[in-house]
């Protein structure tokens, strides 16, 4: 059926399709079997020009054109057909071959044509021409669409199947020897002609696989030859099929091939992307997208220029924040400059300015002390001032009766409660006389407290100089006079112990003259009162003298403003945290306010008076305990209320830096443990050795510092590089390391990081709980008489998780060993907030029900102390071993 139709068409087309060249192309539909068909674009190249003699018409055509394609194409010889390289042979092509034979039999039709008139013939011809032209165009269009669709499908399939699909596709080409249609005379159907127009495909395609085997250049050359060389109709099948298809994509196309745009499944699948993109995988696509995204992200943001306020020192983090830059960028910049730093590192203003300018900002350098501006020494209007109680400090030589006198006044017996009779803690309290309040600051009289006394004098309005009538003026009496005079504080002389038979008040007055203290009875203005603390004699007179003096001083303050004052003492209280005894000097302090005290800050949690009462406010000249600070400030530090936490933090950070700088400034070049320093003292004649003292309360530290200072001679003395209340921290170790100081812990312990740091740096930490032991040790060392060393080895720490009350045994701590190990028989200490609560021995060490010799880290155990039961969950049990080693220098 199809054949007949073709025949008919061919017969007509023969007269219409004379093409100038030997190349034509089109699409043919191929039967794929099982009802599937596929359109394939083919190209047919005719090698030999059509010779006129071949076009012998079978019948006489009325038009010249009819004569052209008449020659029946001799069927091409089988060995030499020009191969139409098509992936699948087209069925449509095959019928083309027998066409000439069939045309032979059409002669009768031609005879009929002769009977038609010329006009009829022309009309028919035109109609045919037009019909065919339409058909050709439509067929071409369909063929192109189909080819595109097929190509797209194929490409997609091939991409998915990658190499495997390609391999399957490449070797498959079926070489269809296309009959050498002798001329346009063959006049194939339009679709066929389109397909025939691409015969070259078949010839070039096979060349590709062969190439990698021998050599690209030579092979390519051969192919070129083959393309042109073989006689018309010569089959190229052998060359086509042979090559390894896997290598095909690697073969570069020849220029000729590109120009011709030959189409194979492979080229169809690749050419859409220009051929090169064929191998691009999804991963590559994703990488490309990712790269693009990154490049987008890395685009510089729009810069916002800022004026960055720079203090003298600043952390990188803070600087970054002020510049609104990322700290990591600042660190990167510093890395480029060869400096490895962390966000928390402190840099000086010069470097900070360099960085800020580099990041495109301007800087405004300020003095660090600016942060305190407007906080302290705020001047009040005269009209706002109200009378306030006087603040009195009692000063004098040791044992002249200062505490006794204060006790007598306060009607409380503090002396009896003091360890060794020495006042170690400074207190402050208020008493009332005739309805008027007087604030007393209890500065201990021991020589060790010299420094504290000096500070106390600054906070006070009136100094009571206690001089024992039986002892008269002594060195510390003179020192006290000097401090009071330096502070511009008026003195009231209390001549104590007048009850004693050896008392000589007049001698005291006379001797005071030598130190420019002129009492009233000697023609001066200094009030003097003869008292007996023991018998409470003339205490009223003393208080009246104080009030009289206060009246002369006309003491006033504005209670209606933010509070400001001085820290009298501070300590780390077990359970209450940091507790600071402060003296409010201006304004009124209230709970909830934010306080900066020294280098510490905090929100006031509670205010407690000297009598233990919680109060809602503390006005001028009122001493009060403040709870809620982040740490313990130093005695003598000034405090003030600020409006925000950030301000408080800023000020406290500034003050911490200031303290660090001061400490660093004090550091010396010497280095070593206590023994090393002592040996250095002896061998090199070193004049001083540095110590860092940490204690449980400020008072103890002052006592230790004073005692150690007192040991000093013209040749050698102790230099305290730093002292403070609280646990020994890593920063203490680094300071000790920098200044080569030994560390003394008085009733405190080093935390884990500090211990590790001390081991690393070889800084010795000595623990004491009795001042005299400490002083004796240092004294012995200073005089070169070293007793056997008591070396303590830290074994481990265990945290108390729970406390059990067991009948007959008592309290047992359920613990987990958090560090090292715990040994039975070793020494143990109970630590609460790193402060030693108890030191002793273990009564029991159990794992489950069994008594064990030791418990390693990570395990849980039960522990109970000998003769001690005040244990709480959260406490830490420190386990240590003690060795006594004879010292050798
Ligand atoms: N006879 C007599 N003895 C007194 C009097 N006042 C104090 N004492 C004694 O003097 C000794 C020292 O008294 P303290 O009050 O501790 O003297 P202090 O100046 O506070 O001493 P430190 O705290 O060590 O600086 C004690 O033994 C008191 O009993 C007094 O008025 N008469």
Automatic annotation (TrEMBL):
<feature type="compositionally biased region" description="Low complexity">
    <location>
        <begin position="170"/>
        <end position="192"/>
    </location>
</feature>
<dbReference type="InterPro" id="IPR013575">
    <property type="entry name" value="IF2_assoc_dom_bac"/>
</dbReference>
<dbReference type="InterPro" id="IPR005225">
    <property type="entry name" value="Small_GTP-bd"/>
</dbReference>
<keyword id="KW-0342">GTP-binding</keyword>
<feature type="region of interest" description="Disordered">
    <location>
        <begin position="138"/>
        <end position="283"/>
    </location>
</feature>
<dbReference type="InterPro" id="IPR023115">
    <property type="entry name" value="TIF_IF2_dom3"/>
</dbReference>
<dbReference type="GO" id="GO:0005525">
    <property type="term" value="F:GTP binding"/>
</dbReference>
<feature type="region of interest" description="Disordered">
    <location>
        <begin position="1"/>
        <end position="125"/>
    </location>
</feature>
<dbReference type="InterPro" id="IPR009000">
    <property type="entry name" value="Transl_B-barrel_sf"/>
</dbReference>
<dbReference type="InterPro" id="IPR015760">
    <property type="entry name" value="TIF_IF2"/>
</dbReference>
<keyword id="KW-0396">Initiation factor</keyword>
<comment type="function">
    <text>One of the essential components for the initiation of protein synthesis. Protects formylmethionyl-tRNA from spontaneous hydrolysis and promotes its binding to the 30S ribosomal subunits. Also involved in the hydrolysis of GTP during the formation of the 70S ribosomal complex.</text>
</comment>
<dbReference type="InterPro" id="IPR000178">
    <property type="entry name" value="TF_IF2_bacterial-like"/>
</dbReference>
<keyword id="KW-0648">Protein biosynthesis</keyword>
<feature type="compositionally biased region" description="Low complexity">
    <location>
        <begin position="83"/>
        <end position="103"/>
    </location>
</feature>
<dbReference type="GO" id="GO:0005829">
    <property type="term" value="C:cytosol"/>
</dbReference>
<dbReference type="Pfam" id="PF08364">
    <property type="entry name" value="IF2_assoc"/>
</dbReference>
<feature type="compositionally biased region" description="Low complexity">
    <location>
        <begin position="58"/>
        <end position="70"/>
    </location>
</feature>
<feature type="binding site">
    <location>
        <begin position="442"/>
        <end position="446"/>
    </location>
    <ligand>
        <name>GTP</name>
    </ligand>
</feature>
<feature type="binding site">
    <location>
        <begin position="496"/>
        <end position="499"/>
    </location>
    <ligand>
        <name>GTP</name>
    </ligand>
</feature>
<feature type="binding site">
    <location>
        <begin position="396"/>
        <end position="403"/>
    </location>
    <ligand>
        <name>GTP</name>
    </ligand>
</feature>
<dbReference type="GO" id="GO:0003924">
    <property type="term" value="F:GTPase activity"/>
</dbReference>
<feature type="compositionally biased region" description="Pro residues">
    <location>
        <begin position="71"/>
        <end position="82"/>
    </location>
</feature>
<feature type="compositionally biased region" description="Basic and acidic residues">
    <location>
        <begin position="138"/>
        <end position="169"/>
    </location>
</feature>
<feature type="region of interest" description="G-domain">
    <location>
        <begin position="390"/>
        <end position="538"/>
    </location>
</feature>
<protein>
    <recommendedName>
        <fullName>Translation initiation factor IF-2</fullName>
    </recommendedName>
</protein>
<dbReference type="Pfam" id="PF04760">
    <property type="entry name" value="IF2_N"/>
</dbReference>
<dbReference type="Pfam" id="PF22042">
    <property type="entry name" value="EF-G_D2"/>
</dbReference>
<dbReference type="InterPro" id="IPR006847">
    <property type="entry name" value="IF2_N"/>
</dbReference>
<keyword id="KW-0963">Cytoplasm</keyword>
<dbReference type="Pfam" id="PF11987">
    <property type="entry name" value="IF-2"/>
</dbReference>
<keyword id="KW-0547">Nucleotide-binding</keyword>
<feature type="compositionally biased region" description="Basic and acidic residues">
    <location>
        <begin position="1"/>
        <end position="10"/>
    </location>
</feature>
<feature type="domain" description="Tr-type G">
    <location>
        <begin position="387"/>
        <end position="554"/>
    </location>
</feature>
<dbReference type="InterPro" id="IPR027417">
    <property type="entry name" value="P-loop_NTPase"/>
</dbReference>
<dbReference type="GO" id="GO:0003743">
    <property type="term" value="F:translation initiation factor activity"/>
</dbReference>
<dbReference type="InterPro" id="IPR053905">
    <property type="entry name" value="EF-G-like_DII"/>
</dbReference>
<dbReference type="Pfam" id="PF03144">
    <property type="entry name" value="GTP_EFTU_D2"/>
</dbReference>
<dbReference type="Pfam" id="PF00009">
    <property type="entry name" value="GTP_EFTU"/>
</dbReference>
<dbReference type="InterPro" id="IPR000795">
    <property type="entry name" value="T_Tr_GTP-bd_dom"/>
</dbReference>
<dbReference type="InterPro" id="IPR036925">
    <property type="entry name" value="TIF_IF2_dom3_sf"/>
</dbReference>
<comment type="similarity">
    <text>Belongs to the TRAFAC class translation factor GTPase superfamily. Classic translation factor GTPase family. IF-2 subfamily.</text>
</comment>
């Amino acid at each position: 059926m199809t054949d007949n139709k073709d025949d008919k068409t061919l017969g007509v087309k023969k007269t219409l399709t004379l093409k100038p060249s030997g190349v034509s192309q089109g699409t043919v539909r191929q039967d794929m079997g099982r009802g599937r068909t596929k359109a394939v674009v083919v190209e047919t190249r005719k090698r030999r020009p059509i010779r006129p003699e071949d076009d012998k018409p079978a019948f006489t055509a009325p038009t010249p054109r009819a004569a052209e394609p008449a020659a029946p194409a001799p069927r091409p010889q089988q060995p030499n057909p020009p191969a139409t390289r098509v992936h699948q042979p087209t069925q449509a092509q095959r019928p083309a071959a027998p066409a000439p034979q069939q045309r032979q039999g059409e002669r009768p039709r031609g005879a009929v044509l002769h009977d038609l008139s010329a006009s009829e013939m022309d009309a028919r011809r035109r109609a045919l021409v037009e019909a065919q032209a339409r058909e050709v165009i439509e067929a071409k269009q369909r063929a192109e669409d189909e080819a595109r669709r097929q190509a797209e499908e194929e490409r997609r399939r091939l991409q998915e199947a990658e190499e495997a699909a390609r391999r399957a596709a490449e070797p498959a080409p079926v070489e269809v020897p296309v009959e050498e249609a002798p001329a346009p005379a063959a006049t194939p159907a339009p679709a066929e002609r389109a397909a025939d127009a691409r015969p070259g495909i078949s010839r070039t395609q096979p060349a590709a696989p062969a190439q990698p085997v021998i050599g690209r250049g030579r092979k390519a050359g051969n192919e070129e030859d083959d393309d042109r060389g073989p006689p018309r109709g010569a089959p190229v099948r052998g060359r086509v099929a042979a090559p390894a298809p896997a290598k095909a994509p690697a073969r570069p196309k020849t220029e000729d091939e590109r120009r011709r745009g030959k189409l194979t499944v492979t080229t169809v699948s690749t050419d859409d992307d220009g051929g090169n993109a064929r191998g691009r995988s999804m991963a590559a696509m994703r990488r490309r997208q990712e790269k693009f995204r990154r490049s987008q992200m890395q685009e510089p943001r729009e810069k916002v220029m800022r004026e960055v306020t720079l203090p003298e020192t600043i952390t990188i983090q803070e600087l970054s924040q002020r510049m609104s830059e990322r700290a990591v960028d600042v660190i990167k910049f510093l890395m480029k400059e060869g400096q490895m730093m962390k966000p928390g590192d402190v840099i000086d203003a010069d470097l900070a300015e360099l960085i800020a300018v580099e990041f495109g900002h301007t800087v405004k350098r300020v003095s660090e002390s600016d942060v305190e501006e407007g906080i302290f020494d705020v001047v009040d209007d005269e009209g706002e001032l109200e009378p306030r109680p006087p603040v009195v400090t009692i000063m004098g030589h040791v044992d002249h009766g200062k505490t006794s006198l204060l006790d007598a006044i306060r009607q409380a017996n503090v002396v009896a409660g003091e360890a060794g009779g020495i006042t170690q803690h400074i207190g402050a309290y208020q008493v009332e006389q005739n309805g008027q309040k007087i604030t007393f600051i209890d500065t201990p009289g021991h020589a060790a407290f010299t420094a504290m006394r000096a500070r106390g004098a600054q906070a006070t309005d009136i100094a009571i100089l206690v001089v024992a009538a039986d002892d008269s003026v002594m060195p510390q009496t003179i020192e006290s006079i000097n401090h009071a005079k330096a502070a511009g504080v008026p003195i009231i002389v209390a001549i104590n112990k007048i009850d004693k038979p050896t008392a000589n008040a007049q001698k005291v007055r006379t001797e005071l003259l030598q130190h420019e203290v002129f009492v009233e009875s000697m023609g001066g203005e200094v009030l003097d009162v003869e008292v007996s603390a023991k018998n409470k004699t003339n205490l009223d007179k003393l208080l009246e003298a104080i009030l009289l003096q206060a009246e002369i001083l006309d003491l006033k303050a504005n209670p209606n403003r933010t509070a400001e004052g001085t820290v009298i003492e501070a300590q780390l209280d077990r359970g209450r945290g940091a507790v600071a005894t402060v003296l409010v000097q201006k304004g009124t302090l209230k709970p909830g306010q934010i306080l900066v005290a020294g280098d510490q800050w905090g929100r006031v949690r509670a205010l407690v008076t000297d009598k233990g009462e919680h109060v809602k406010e503390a006005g001028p000249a009122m001493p009060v305990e403040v709870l809620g600070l982040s740490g313990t400030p130093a005695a003598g530090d000034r405090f003030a209320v600020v409006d925000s936490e950030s301000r408080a933090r800023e000020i406290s950070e500034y003050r911490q830096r200031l303290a660090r700088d001061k400490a660093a400034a004090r550091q010396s070049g010497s280095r070593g443990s206590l023994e090393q320093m002592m040996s250095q003292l002896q061998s090199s004649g070193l004049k001083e050795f540095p110590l860092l003292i940490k204690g449980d309360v400020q008072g103890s530290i002052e006592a230790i510092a004073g005692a150690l200072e007192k040991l000093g001679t013209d040749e050698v003395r102790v230099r305290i590089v730093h002292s403070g209340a609280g646990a020994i921290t890593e920063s203490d170790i680094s300071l000790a390391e920098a200044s080569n100081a030994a560390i003394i812990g008085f009733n405190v312990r080093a935390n884990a990081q500090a211990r590790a740091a001390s081991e690393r740096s070889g800084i010795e930490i000595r623990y004491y709980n009795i001042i005299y032991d400490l002083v004796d040790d240092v004294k012995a060392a200073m005089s070169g008489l070293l007793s056997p060393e008591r070396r303590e080895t830290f074994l481990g720490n265990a945290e108390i998780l729970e406390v059990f009350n067991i009948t007959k045994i008592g309290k047992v701590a359920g613990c987990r060993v958090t560090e090292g190990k715990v040994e039975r028989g070793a020494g143990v200490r109970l630590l609460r907030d790193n402060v030693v609560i108890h030191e002793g021995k273990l009564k029991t060490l159990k794992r489950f029900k069994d008594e064990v010799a030791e418990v390693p880290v990570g395990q849980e155990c039960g522990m109970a102390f000998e003769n001690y039961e005040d244990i709480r969950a959260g406490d830490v049990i420190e386990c240590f071993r003690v060795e006594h080693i004879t010292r050798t220098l």
